[in-house]
Structure formats: C-alpha cells, structure tokens
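Hi everyone, sorry if this is the wrong subforum. Our group has a chain we'd like a structural model of before ordering constructs, and none of us has done structure prediction before. Sequence below.
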Amino acid sequence: LLVTSSYANGNSLLVGILSNPQSPSWSSSYFVDMYSLTTDHQRPLGRICVDADTLYVSRLSYGVAAFTLALNTKPNFRGNLDSEGYATGMAHTGSRLYSAARYGIGMDVIDTSDLTNLRLKVSNPVEGDPLDVAILNGYAYLATRGGIWTLSLVP
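Answer:
Right subforum, don't worry. Here is the predicted structure as tokens:
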C-alpha cells in the first residue's frame, strides 16, 4: 500500500499498490478527498504519516487523527487527539507517533497502541520553531528554524 503525498492540505491523496517496486506501476489505485474523512470540515488538514496500514493526519492546530487503510475503500477513522501547538511534521515507530509541534510546544509523543484512544505521553519543549521530525536508531531528529535537535527516545 502506498500513499503518494506528504501533504494533505485538503486535496486528494492517491492510495494504491505498486505491483513491482523495482519497476513501478500501479496495479490498483484510488483517490481520497481528505476533507471527506473528517466530520468537522472547518478544521484544516496538514502533513500525513503512513506506517503499514495506518494513516496519521495532522490537523494542524487541532492535533492528529488516525485512520486505517485498505485498498479500494475509504480510510476508516479510528481516533483523534486534540493537542496544543501546530503539528507541522510527524514520524511513527512502534506504538509512538512523534509530532513536531510549533508555537512553544516542541515535540509531542503520542501513544498509538490503541488507535481509538490516542494519548499524549509527553511534550518535549525545545528552543526554535519545530518544522519536522525524523526517527532513526533510537533518536528523534527535530528540525527547527534554529537548527536540529537530537532527542534520545525512551522506550
């Protein structure tokens, strides 16, 4: 399963299956209108993060939402977590979603072990204005307007 865009921004996403990653061609695909996934169409949508069959969508200043994905069906809403800040980038590993949150928040760590009950585990404040986050080898790399923060991940 593949989602082609890293930004939702209220547009459609292309969801599909690549028949052969070495020689890419779509064996099946469909478009999803991201605004059709929410009940509150006034809340803007931002960055997305896909891990296996789960789609995480930043709702910018309204937190994040989780959806399960399956081919040829509309993504299934599973849960939402309202949070402070402004989610500008996300990365998922294990049962944690790491969200770069602007306006004095830093990086939110969200427990995703139960998609119907997303829970904020901790917020890590940093200096600067967080823009994106990447996870590698037990560390979170948080890009800010002032540089890159390296944060050790605790299990």
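For your construct planning: Residues 6-10 have pLDDT under 50 and may be disordered. The two ends are 28 Å apart (CA to CA).
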